[in-house]
Design a protein that fits this description.
Layout (H helix, E strand, L loop, with lengths): L5 H5 L1 H5 L17 E4 L4 E4 L2 E2 H4 L7 H10 L5 H20 L13 H9 L8 H19 L13 H10 L5 H13 L7 H11 L4 H13 L7 H12 L12 H11 L17 H17 L2 H23 L9 H11 L7 H23 L30
Antiparallel strand pairs: 1-2, 2-3
The structure holds coenzyme A.
Length: 401
Amino acid sequence: MPNMSMAEVIGMKHVAAPLASGLEGVVVAETRLSEVDGERGKLTLSGHDVEELAGDGGATFEDVCGLLWGGALPAAAEREAIRGAIAEGRARAFAVLGRLGDALQAGDGMDALRAAVAHLGSDAPPAAIAGAVATFAAAWSRRRAGEAPVAPDPALRLSADYLRMVRGAAASEAEARELDTYLVTVSDHGMNASTFAARVVTSTGSDAISAVVAAIGALKGPLHGGAPGPVLDMLDAIGAATGEGGAPPAGSAERWIQAELGAGRRIMGMGHRIYRVRDPRAAVLERSIERLGRTSGGARGARLALARAVERAAEAALRARHPDRPLRANVEFYTAVLLDALGLPRTLFSPTFAVGRVAGWCAHIDEQRRAGRLIRPSSRYIGGVPGAAGVRSAALTPQSS
Ligand code: COA
């Protein structure tokens, strides 16, 4: 035994199976919800191109909930029913704010959201969960700013009410429409990490709230939903030299980016696991910022010009370092510019991502329940062989006091 390799001990079959690092290229489910075509840069949401669904005059958040939860864009009466159910979810969540302990006192918005959502009843339906995520995120942001949470208005659709609850003043129809563009754009995206986390939890037979709490934890990470805040920090750092924004002085974006890469840091908002071309959602959000700029002009246009210049500089620097791996702008790059233009504080960017993505999580939870099979991959053991030299016997290990 001591001279046997691990392959001989446990049998070659397991050891020889290819290691799928990061589960890249592994297909774990069939889904009717969304398809990410990384080569052509296309995103399909339940039979609709994202450009069509989230374009000018496109779907509302409630529409995309109807699409993902029910399989088709809702007709007028259905849309009203979904709007009412999500509005009721916001109202119920607001009513329990006082019973969330210290959840909303967390310094990080995703920590607060995770703790607050954990208070919901484990059998909460999708509309209640979606309404609660928006209410908790807005209430956390108000408290963080030292202001009282604003009660939801059940007459409004989620986008308009979310902006109102965060800012304490009514949003214009143009602003609500562009927040809808954002929420629809990020509502679902294939087997992304947070969706996968939700599906793993669901596959054990656990409840929806446990799955959503796991998803929020996965979304928090900077490689997934935590990137847009740092993107805005980057734009601020590069744009500082230009005063009110606009195109940065020649070479300043390049110098900043080279310094980051030289320090071994990643450029936030760039690169993607699946896309080998520019993320199509970046273009959808870029157009949304242009539309907002036309209604308000001024500083927003300058910020967009800065973002475009930084994107070009980052793309060129990454192309030079990784000629074989296209690293282009992803959704988070223009998320930062759009949410900032909508007057949301950067600390609220990741929670606002959750406000949109919860539509997809709930749909995947339902789909995974129907699939009904436990998700349980394997690992390759690279630890010591029992009895081999260098592996101390448990019986001989001195007890610690
Ligand atoms: N900046 C600098 N280098 C990057 C990079 C970035 N944004 N994204 C990837 N790379 C580099 C990696 O360092 C790695 O280089 P190496 O082979 O020399 O080690 C190579 O590109 C491949 O990266 P890898 O981590 O294997 O790619 P992935 O598919 O696992 O990662 C992301 C995808 C999104 C996690 C990655 O591109 C990233 O970290 N981006 C920044 C964070 C971000 O914007 N997240 C939001 C995603 S929507």
